[in-house]
Specification:
The protein contains nine helices and ten strands. By secondary structure, the chain is α+β, with helices and mostly antiparallel strands. Among the domains are: 66 residues, no CATH class; 156 residues, no CATH class. The strands form two sheets. Strands 1-9-8-7-10 form a five-stranded antiparallel sheet. Helix 3 runs antiparallel to helix 4 and helix 3 crosses helix 5. The chain is elongated, with a radius of gyration of 26 Å. It starts with a helix and ends in a 7-residue tail after the last strand. 29% of the residues are buried.
Length: 339
């Protein structure tokens, strides 16, 4: 063994410094491009809103305030506000100074709700801090560059996905007929799917006339979910906002197990009619001028620490105009399940 080390020592001494510099550069480039970009690239998933670039944080806050203005869900507004972590108060003040397209009165109403208690710091999990680290041996400069590029990419993807969802809802062709349905064509239609792991799922879409007049908004959001990551969702809230009546009608889609729990069902009834989700289940919400039919086209369940949860849920929304002048909530069951 001693002879081996002695031989290596002689080799090191015999090579000029320029050779070692070339070897170092080759190793750095190999680690940067081959390991860092091809074999073991850094992957960012499920980043929290607080990781957004400062300008995008302000856009995120404006979207949160706009959503609260339409759905009036104070609990959901607080969760989204706290998603910005320690930066939330600063971003809210920035949006107050520069409201953009928002009504200043809506901002003040939002502030009175979310600042009623001190925002809790968002707990960071390994996924929120970015998954996948490069193997040991990556050059320091290359690793820093990859991390910066990954952070910018996840921020950009998060921002543009939110913008795209809003644009898709607004661009939905009013009156587009739903395949396989008979009767009058809906004023607006929308299709959304939730899958386990989408912890920031919150779908909404605008309801407009053919001439572009805004009539209201509808959507699907969490009604009951665990505090873990990923969140295990046991119930969803279907809601319909009518500008004419300035009110929001709601109903709850829950797992069959939660529906069978009388105490849990009574707790959820404070939000609206409670319905056990099943393929074919239709929930109807009526306001002064609008009628929403939310049909469950696909649902899958799993069993977790807190009981049965949604692994997947697909809902098709159809909105019609009506002149009945009354509000109501109805639910028609799939065969064999309670409504």
């Amino acid at each position: 063994m001693g002879a081996l080390f002695a031989g290596l020592k002689d080799i090191v001494k015999s090579l000029p410094w320029k050779t070692w510099l070339v070897v170092f550069l080759i190793g750095a480039l190999f680690g940067w491009f081959v390991l860092g970009w091809w074999i073991a690239p850094v992957k960012w998933v499920d980043a929290a809103p607080q990781h957004l670039e400062p300008t995008w944080r302000a856009d995120y806050m404006r979207m949160v305030i706009e959503s609260f203005t339409y759905n009036g869900n104070a609990d959901l507004a607080k969760v989204r506000y706290q998603g910005l972590g320690d930066a939330a108060p600063k971003v809210l003040e920035e949006v107050t100074r520069d409201p953009g397209y928002l009504n200043p009165a809506d901002i003040e109403r939002f502030k009175s709700v979310v600042l009623g208690q001190a925002p809790a710091a968002v707990e960071q999990g390994p996924a929120a801090q970015g998954g996948g680290q490069g193997k040991s041996g990556l050059a320091l400069v290359g690793l820093c560059l990859v991390v910066l590029v990954g952070l910018a990419a996840i921020g950009g993807i998060f921002f543009f996905m939110r913008k795209k969802k809003a644009a898709d809802g607004a661009a939905m062709a009013p009156g587009a007929a739903v395949v396989g349905e008979s009767g009058p064509a809906p004023l607006s239609s929308y299709h959304t799917t939730y899958t386990l792991g989408d912890d920031y799922f919150d779908e909404s879409f605008s309801i407009d006339t053919a001439s572009g007049e805004f009539l209201g908004e509808a959507g699907l959001s969490f009604a009951e979910a665990s505090e873990t990551q990923p969140k295990y969702v046991r119930a969803f809230e279907v809601w319909l906002f009518d500008k004419a009546g300035i009110r929001t009608e709601t109903a709850v889609l829950c797992t069959p197990e939660l529906f069978a729990d009388e105490e849990a069902r009574q707790r959820l009834e404070a939000r609206g009619t409670v319905v056990a989700a099943a393929p074919g289940q239709v929930v109807t919400l009526k306001t002064e001028k609008l009628q929403l039919e939310a049909q469950v086209t696909e649902c899958e369940f799993g069993d977790g620490p807190e009981g049965q949860y949604f692994a997947k849920l697909t809902v098709t929304f159809r909105v019609f105009l009506h002149e009945e002048g009354e509000s109501a909530t109805e639910a028609s069951s799939a065969e064999g399940l309670p409504a």
